[in-house]
């Protein structure tokens, strides 16, 4: 199957000579939720802006829904909806007018039934006659999404969709994005909330200093790079780590009451069983045991600081 977005050997050098993207290659499949993660200044917005035709590329090619974004700009652009970071809409307009007008910008004929569906899907129908300035921050954000969906794009870019919104609205937005995906929309989001990528994404791309350093299914990424930790609370404190355990990835807490064993998620239980048996043989007793998995955040921090 042809990917919805195909980026080949893409580079971007800004006018001042700064190279913001270095030879990016990336395919995004139809109907997936792809999260692009990277520290500030890594090139996320530059990449999105090039695909959406807002910034010119320096070299390479990008196809959106099979259309070359330079040679076939109009067709490529009309396949894409973009929800930018900042709210950019006329505050005096009504919700209905703002969303209908956006559709017109793409040269699409009026389709009130589609606009109605979008507004209903985003729980904006009751507000259709309200002026945008009278809406809450969360509602305004929904209007931005409605505008981006007004021309029936099959690809939706969300640049930091939940920056600065409260936890409840963030969860609502996640539900909404999943609903869009269920309707066949391909979704690419950038986020600083790693929890968001962990919750939503099918695949994750990590960008650092203009280079894509990793693209992986979320579950595979967590399994491959994640670590597990086993903490044992001891009945009696140990003065030092026994020599028999010195070769293991194990540490003793300062007060001597806790042993912390760290292992790869993939290595799984074999090591734990062996360790517990070994402790039994050494007469070390524990009164409690806890395990913890590393979060995507820890994996991410490890990746970008390598
Ligand atoms: N118009 C421009 N001219 C020159 N340099 C630019 C321009 N726009 C962006 N840059 C530089 O390109 C790099 C990438 O910026 P970009 O906005 O793509 O990063 P980002 O990953 O989206 O960051 P953030 O997470 O902070 O939004 C930065 O170093 C930035 O200073």
UniProtKB/TrEMBL annotation:
GO MF term set: ATP binding; ATP hydrolysis activity
Keywords assigned by UniProt, alphabetized: ATP-binding, Nucleotide-binding, Transport
InterPro entries membership: AAA+_ATPase, ABC_transporter-like_ATP-bd, ABC_transporter-like_CS, ABC_transporter_ATP-binding, P-loop_NTPase
Keyword Disulfide bond on entry: no
One of the Pfam families matching this protein, by short name: ABC_tran
Origin superkingdom: Bacteria
Name this polypeptide is given: ABC-2 type transport system ATP-binding protein
